[in-house]
Specification:
Blueprint lengths: L1 H9 L5 H4 L1 H6 L2 H15 L12 H7 L39 H5 L6 H9 L1 H4 L13 H15 L22 E7 L2 E6 L4 E5 L3 E5 L12 E3 L8 E5 L3 H6 E3 L2
Parallel strand pairs: 1-7, 4-6
Antiparallel strand pairs: 1-2, 2-3, 5-6
Helix pairs in contact: 1-4, 5-9, 7-9
The structure holds heme C.
The site of heme C has 27 residues, from helix 6 and helix 7.
Length: about 250
Amino acid sequence: MKAASRRTSRNDGKHRKVYTAAVLQRAPKRLAMIGIAAGVVAAAMPSGAAESGGDAKRGTKVFQACVTCHSLEPDRHMTGPSLAQLFGRKAGSGKGFLRYSDAMLKADIVWNERTLDDWLTNPGRLIPGNEMDFAGIPNQSARSDLIAYLRAVSEGSEAPRGPRMPRLKSAQADDVVKAIRYCGDTYFVTTEAGKTMKIWEFNVRLKTDSTEFGPHPGRPVLVGVGMGSDRAAIVFSAPDEIAKLIKTSC
Ligand code: HEC
């Protein structure tokens, strides 16, 4: 445990909790080993960035700040790219994500503890001109917890949490849309189960999801409607289905 004690003496107290034997014992063995190895790397680094050894479990909570835009499921891209298998990958290289900014595509950065710490402290400083609409996480221990979590998910020792986008191919008859009639300012949306909802046209959002997570072709799905809700989103597998399904008739 030479490495661990060296780290203890290097730290200013702010991160002492991370290096106590109790924490190392509590952490799964594999994580603890990663923590120690990364700590040696951090010790060799010139700046105070890249504190690793954060608490992956606590990191799941910090990740809530990311879930509106990022999933940890492989290939599940949202506003931002999937963050599965993030470690060791070059910035802007998430497979199948088509919305990277030029700044991100040109950035010569590989994601690891240190680069993620810089990114999450101040995205605009690390990659000026990037298009992630997020100011950063000023609190260093929150950042290291989050990074520990992202690393654990990347390595398969923590389950991906966060947004669970529905798998629309397994939607039930209550949610599968069979017909849409449009009259005046109203959509009459009939499901496979035979129910018809009347929804003001301004409250209907027509969306597409062409990925493996989206609906079967020709079987659009109603999402985000609760009982008594006056709003609905209908997700189609492709844009050309939209006009085909909606019949104007009064
Ligand atoms: C408002 C939406 C939004 C939020 C919130 C957000 N991100 Fe992002 N993120 C993006 C977008 C969009 C990109 C792509 C930016 C670009 O190409 O310039 C991105 C890119 C990234 C990348 C680079 C990925 C790659 O493939 O190179 C990482 C890492 C990242 N975000 C982590 C996070 C983390 C961790 C959080 C939470 C603390 C977070 N983001 C919060 C939208 C967001």
